[in-house]
Model the fold of this input.
Amino acid sequence: MGRTIKLLLLYFAYQLAFFGVLVGIYMLKNGVVEMPDVSGSGYMSVIMWAQFLSTLSVGLHVVLGKYVSIDVFRLKTPDRWAVLFASSVFIVAMGLWTNYFSELAGLPDNMKDVFEQMMNNPLGIISIVVMAPLVEELLFRGAIQGHLMRKWKMPYLGIVVSSLIFGVVHGNPAQIPFAFVVGMALGWMYYLTGSLIPGMLMHFINNGSSVLLYVLSGDPDATMISSLGEAGSMALAVAGIILTVVCILIIRRKLVKEPVQWNEENNFILQ
Done:
């Protein structure tokens, strides 16, 4: 776990460093010696730039530090386009029931105001839709999960632990269970294919659809249940569960019949 802890410390260190630097720039620019008002535009600008720059830096660090192999950017399965299509349907289907159960759980959403402001800012949208899928997959699946699967020689334990870390790192009670479940799906695809491409695509669709639905709804407080009603939401969730199972079966039995073989020295060996 030493490497995992090191990477997590690195992840938070970049965030704190950029936040501190940008706060300092804000103070110099405005001639003040106090933090920007958390409800003001200055604070949100600091948050969004710090998030963007720290995420970019983590991604570069993981790649340049060779925490992942170049092979993770290649999808070598014979039916690669079918795998990508099935992965896309898979994550959409999961969204139907994970959102429903998240709403039923009613966990506090401590980041609601921050997300709303990010979704109304081009830089925030880029961070959510582009940067997060790329860098979080590199870090949590590529660098952390890949290492744990090779080290422990127990792939599913590596998937579970990296997904737990992925969920907790989000730091928002409303997101943690959802992020854990989604992380399991992303991790499973990485385990099967040895490639981060399916996971990045799934992550992009998941985050992008959230932003798109927010923009199209015109109501920041709109939920699945409030929009479709209890019966409609439940029916959609059940359909999502069925479609999720179908996708898992198709991927496992038709498209990727044997997962890549992971070993200690390399990310994987194709069978």
Q: What stands out?
A: The longest helix spans residues 224-255. The CA atoms of residues 189 and 199 lie 7 Å apart. Residues 72-255 form one domain.
